[in-house]
Amino acid sequence: MQNGEQAATKLGHVANSGLPWMTILDSTGEEIVNSDGPQGNVGCPITKEECGYFMTMIEQSKQRLTSQQTSDLATALDAYAAPKRRGND
User: Whole-prediction pTM value?
Assistant: First the structure.
């Protein structure tokens, strides 16, 4: 991404806090939530805590997702993450 470092810094990303880092903005460009969870950047969520915070991000920012779609997303995320976290959770 051209000027990605400058954009990330402007949006509040702290250097060396991990990648990927994301922020979800509203239609005016104001931040709704970012990937800096209670235990740091969730990046690509793998641990139960990271996955939980990622789903919090979705809940805080969703506009058109149904409860079923949110549940399906959580199930898919867990199916992706579970094999990668064996012994790490």
Answer: 0.82
